[in-house]
Amino acid sequence: MSATDKAEAKPPMRDALVAAAFRLFTERGYEQTTVDDIVTLAGVGRRSFFRYFPSKDDVVFPDHERCLADMTAFLGASGPEHEPVRRVCDAARLVLLMYAENPSFSVQRYRLTKQVPGLRAYELSVVWRYERALAEYLRGRFAGGRDGNLRADVIAAAVVAAHNNALRSWLRSDGQGEATATVDHALGYVQAAFGSPPAPSADERRVEPGNPPRGAAERPEDVVVIVSRRGAPLWRVVQEIETTLGRD
Amino acid sequence: MSATDKAEAKPPMRDALVAAAFRLFTERGYEQTTVDDIVTLAGVGRRSFFRYFPSKDDVVFPDHERCLADMTAFLGASGPEHEPVRRVCDAARLVLLMYAENPSFSVQRYRLTKQVPGLRAYELSVVWRYERALAEYLRGRFAGGRDGNLRADVIAAAVVAAHNNALRSWLRSDGQGEATATVDHALGYVQAAFGSPPAPSADERRVEPGNPPRGAAERPEDVVVIVSRRGAPLWRVVQEIETTLGRD
DNA sequence: CGACGTCATGGCACTCGGTTCCCTCCGCGC
DNA sequence: GCGCGGAGGGAACCGAGTGCCATGACGTCG
């Protein structure tokens, strides 16, 4: 009881509750398990359960609060040298990392949330908070730019969707295989759609009439794009250009 | 009690419950209002409340179920002639339409959900179902393509995020102004990022100049634009064009 | 050593959302 | 008349979540 006391290993009881809860959840189902069942199995008082978990749902996601804090810290520690889209992609990878830390637990939880509507709803609110954190960061980075808030919201949503797509596919395979590769590919798709080039590797040889991507510090705002569909009437083109360039 | 009975006005009681509920919610707050308060004000039995609304939350979103059914019907009635991304954007407009049908009610609800975490969570699950509907449709359209499921999920999320961004900005302005213009612009952004150019009709080079909005039937999708800011590196322009046009 | 404050825990009672079961009432066809 | 089915109401019940207080361990101070 010397080093691990104050620094890390706070609650043996909390872990006992999580273990007891998951045993019962997998045995007889989530809704068929009452909080009283959990606390009697764990051998603690009912009141103590709600001291550690504000609701019965929270015991299913015991470490998301910490992960969310990590993500906000990660984003808060960003500087202007970081390309924004790439930065939120990296932030999303933190979540995957948490899942990958404990594959069997994550797979168990995935099966649970997949078939219990209440848990799915709760998970949505958790995911929403991640998305909000990403969007808030992007809003700061895009501030002043055209459609900054819109871009921030859309990109955050796209990053979360891509991450979850890859995460779920990894979870469906029982945590086999390399999760990072899948998620890298998914996030790469989003970066290709919204971001600056991921890593200016050796590909840009031909498209370089003068300026190489020197610091990769170019912003997406540098390029605003207006493509006219073939056959579109000119007044539509003009209108779109006007709104794109903005008059506010 | 002749014509409106079976065809339309089914539940006077349901509407009375919604009205009573919103009166109390706005007067004393959502969590401070019990279901018993609502039913006594509406003058009906407690049991009847849960006959019409499966939960207390549902009374806040009385017409989303119908709107979701409309959306799935709309998507189900799609054909191969519809460009997928544009189609889901149009589907999203259905939701905006529902909000715009009853601006004052929508604004009231917006203020409510903004400050009651439980309602926000419930709204997330509603939005999630819309997003799933869009994603399912896109999965069908993208089936067989490279990264079909990933693209479907990401685009659905982006469309929903853009729609909600515009919707919220309209709701924040107390329902003043034209909602459709805002949402068109937001969805246009997503289409610019993800939409593929529609069927390559023959004429491509020239946009007919001097065309007045004849039928005003042109949609924003007709024009997608790519403008390079001066000084932007060419590789950025090319990249942006490539991702906009899509390479799958 | 004993009094005291603090903190984690347990126990109890209560509120409220949601469900189950059963009853009444009303209109319908036989 | 009778039965019958569906809409509504009422009472009891369950379980999640909260507030309040007692208890017991531990450390500190007198």
Architecture blueprint of SSEs:
2 copies of one chain form a homodimer.
Chain A: H1 4-7, H2 12-28, H3 35-42, H4 46-52, H5 64-76, H6 84-101, H7 103-115, H8 117-142, H9 148-172, H10 179-194, E1 223-225, H11 234-245
Chain A binds a DNA duplex (30 and 30 nucleotides) through helix 4.
Can you walk through the features of this model?
2 copies of one chain form a homodimer. Chain A is mainly α. Chain A has helices spanning 4-7, 12-28, 35-42, 46-52, 64-76, 84-101, 103-115, 117-142, 148-172, 179-194, 234-245; one strand at residues 223-225. In chain A, helix 5 runs antiparallel to helix 6 (84-101), helix 5 (64-76) packs parallel to helix 8 (117-142) and helix 6 (84-101) packs parallel to helix 9 (148-172). Mean pLDDT of chain A is 83; it is low at 1-9 and 198-220. Chains A and B meet through helix 8, helix 9, helix 10, strand 1 and helix 11 of A and helix 8, helix 9, helix 10, strand 1 and helix 11 of B. The first copy, chain A, binds a DNA duplex (30 and 30 nucleotides) through residues 13, 34-36, 44-48, 50-51, 54-56.
Low-confidence stretches of chain A: 1-9, 198-220
Q: H/E series of chain A, N to C?
A: HHHHHHHHHHEH
**What is the straight-line distance between the termini of chain A?**
63 Å
Give a quick account of the main beta sheet of chain A: strands, pairing sense, barrel closure: none
- DSSP helix fraction of chain A: 55-70%
Overall mean pLDDT score of chain A? 83
Number of strands of chain A: 1
Rounded to an integer, what's the Rg of chain A over CA atoms?
23 Å
DSSP strand content of chain A: under 5%
Oligomer: homodimer
